[in-house]
């Protein structure tokens, strides 16, 4: 869930990672990588011949560099596409702050980690087809699932910078308290100073996985017309080299195939997330520039 900090610029809680290998932009195509493998799409251009170089942002359960052994939902999606296209996936650490720059600079082919498609980012990179929604979660001890239920509470916390903050502020007024990160937000909720914790849904599912008496709901499943980020949720996708149509066609086809055969839905539910997170719009929603 792209820490919606970038939500306006588009990304989730800042995570640590470094820029990587200095590879040249049009290093080669997949056709020469393995003579015993036939790619589903011929002539895919990548920064290094026969390889798909990928920046990984740490935001479990979607993606984790994991000390050089990447795992997560996004990793599984990309690994399948790379295999189908006879490309060797090469992973390196990335952050929301440097991912787009690394792509536009020709260092990596794409990045993953719940990165929202936004107008601002589209100036520097292209985006693959959407993988899943970047949903708003509600964690509470009352089983709240809607904004209307938040209105009945005394104090509700969220993170400053998310797309839903201003709409919630209009609805909740002084009841809404904002925090710089998920750490401070969860600490106050755990201490009983908040009745609800509103954060990126995917992050909350892991945060409260073993928390007795706490439920986490995907608010997008019961949209409130007063909150734009719920009725029109940001969509995560893979930012990639601008103008690289050969790679975009392969990524789009691979993602759409995994959506249609239920692979993405299963990856989400296996991670403990709602299948509803995979219900992206027929036409990709791009977050407008603020």
Task: Walk me through what this model shows.
This protein is an alpha/beta fold. It folds into two domains: 28-133 and 235-278, Periplasmic binding protein-like II (D-Maltodextrin-Binding Protein, domain 2); 136-231, D-Maltodextrin-Binding Protein, domain 2 (3-Layer(aba) Sandwich). It is built from nine helices and 15 strands. It has a five-stranded mixed sheet with strand order 11-10-12-9-13, sandwiched between helices. Strands 4-3-5 form a three-stranded parallel sheet. The chain has a three-stranded antiparallel sheet with strand order 6-14-8, with no helix packed on it. Helix 4 links the parallel strand 10 and strand 11. The longest helix is centred in the last third of the chain and has 16 residues, at 245-260. The radius of gyration is 19 Å and the shape is elongated. The two termini are 19 Å apart.
